[in-house]
Amino acid sequence: MNTLFLLMAQYNGQADIPVDTVCRDYLAHLTPEKFLRKVGAGEIAIPLVRMETSQNSAKGVHLQDLAEWIDARRVAARRECSAVTI
Protein backbone atom coordinates (compact mmCIF):
# COMPACT_ATOMS: atom_id res chain seq x y z
CA MET A 1 0.00 0.00 0.00
CA ASN A 2 1.09 3.52 -0.65
CA THR A 3 1.44 5.47 2.61
CA LEU A 4 0.88 8.81 0.90
CA PHE A 5 -2.50 7.74 -0.48
CA LEU A 6 -3.54 6.31 2.88
CA LEU A 7 -2.67 9.62 4.56
CA MET A 8 -4.56 11.53 1.88
CA ALA A 9 -7.63 9.51 2.77
CA GLN A 10 -7.04 9.89 6.51
CA TYR A 11 -6.67 13.67 6.29
CA ASN A 12 -9.20 14.28 3.49
CA GLY A 13 -6.56 15.51 1.05
CA GLN A 14 -5.26 18.20 3.39
CA ALA A 15 -1.70 19.12 2.29
CA ASP A 16 -0.26 20.30 5.61
CA ILE A 17 -1.14 18.59 8.86
CA PRO A 18 -0.96 20.67 12.07
CA VAL A 19 1.71 19.60 14.55
CA ASP A 20 -0.84 18.81 17.27
CA THR A 21 -2.66 16.45 14.87
CA VAL A 22 0.58 14.67 13.92
CA CYS A 23 1.37 14.22 17.61
CA ARG A 24 -2.14 12.99 18.41
CA ASP A 25 -2.17 10.48 15.56
CA TYR A 26 1.44 9.26 15.42
CA LEU A 27 3.40 10.44 18.45
CA ALA A 28 0.90 10.30 21.29
CA HIS A 29 3.70 10.09 23.85
CA LEU A 30 4.88 13.60 22.87
CA THR A 31 3.28 16.96 23.43
CA PRO A 32 3.42 19.31 20.43
CA GLU A 33 6.01 21.40 22.31
CA LYS A 34 8.25 18.36 22.95
CA PHE A 35 7.82 17.29 19.31
CA LEU A 36 8.94 20.73 18.11
CA ARG A 37 11.98 20.60 20.43
CA LYS A 38 12.97 17.16 19.12
CA VAL A 39 12.60 18.28 15.50
CA GLY A 40 14.66 21.40 16.26
CA ALA A 41 17.36 19.27 17.90
CA GLY A 42 17.46 16.87 14.96
CA GLU A 43 16.16 13.92 17.00
CA ILE A 44 13.12 13.58 14.73
CA ALA A 45 14.03 14.07 11.07
CA ILE A 46 10.90 15.59 9.61
CA PRO A 47 10.62 19.02 7.97
CA LEU A 48 8.20 21.54 9.44
CA VAL A 49 6.19 23.94 7.35
CA ARG A 50 5.59 27.44 8.73
CA MET A 51 2.37 28.99 7.50
CA GLU A 52 4.02 32.45 7.67
CA THR A 53 7.55 33.76 8.11
CA SER A 54 6.86 34.73 11.73
CA GLN A 55 8.48 32.62 14.47
CA ASN A 56 5.07 32.35 16.15
CA SER A 57 3.20 31.16 13.07
CA ALA A 58 1.38 27.86 12.96
CA LYS A 59 3.56 24.89 12.10
CA GLY A 60 2.62 21.73 10.30
CA VAL A 61 4.00 18.73 8.47
CA HIS A 62 3.46 18.32 4.74
CA LEU A 63 1.57 15.15 3.91
CA GLN A 64 4.33 13.80 1.67
CA ASP A 65 7.00 14.43 4.32
CA LEU A 66 4.86 12.61 6.90
CA ALA A 67 4.45 9.66 4.52
CA GLU A 68 8.19 9.50 3.87
CA TRP A 69 8.94 9.68 7.61
CA ILE A 70 6.47 6.87 8.36
CA ASP A 71 7.98 4.77 5.56
CA ALA A 72 11.50 5.38 6.90
CA ARG A 73 10.39 4.30 10.38
CA ARG A 74 8.93 1.14 8.83
CA VAL A 75 12.23 0.35 7.08
CA ALA A 76 14.09 0.82 10.37
CA ALA A 77 11.60 -1.42 12.20
CA ARG A 78 11.95 -4.16 9.58
CA ARG A 79 15.74 -3.96 9.82
CA GLU A 80 15.56 -4.21 13.60
CA CYS A 81 13.18 -7.18 13.36
CA SER A 82 15.50 -8.96 10.92
CA ALA A 83 18.45 -8.41 13.23
CA VAL A 84 16.76 -10.12 16.18
CA THR A 85 15.02 -12.99 14.38
CA ILE A 86 16.53 -15.99 12.71
Report on this structure.
Helix content is 55%, strand content 10%. The chain is mainly alpha-helical and 86 residues long. The chain starts with a helix and ends with a helix. The mean pLDDT is 94. Strands 1-3-2 form a three-stranded antiparallel β-sheet. Helix 1 (3-10) crosses helix 4 (63-84). The chain contains four helices and three strands.
The side-by-side strand order for the widest beta sheet comes to 1-3-2
Number of strands: 3
Radius of gyration computed on alpha carbons: 14 Å
Order of helices and strands: HEHHEEH
What is the first-to-last residue Cα distance?
26 Å
Portion in helices: 40-55%
- What overall form do the CA principal axes indicate? globular
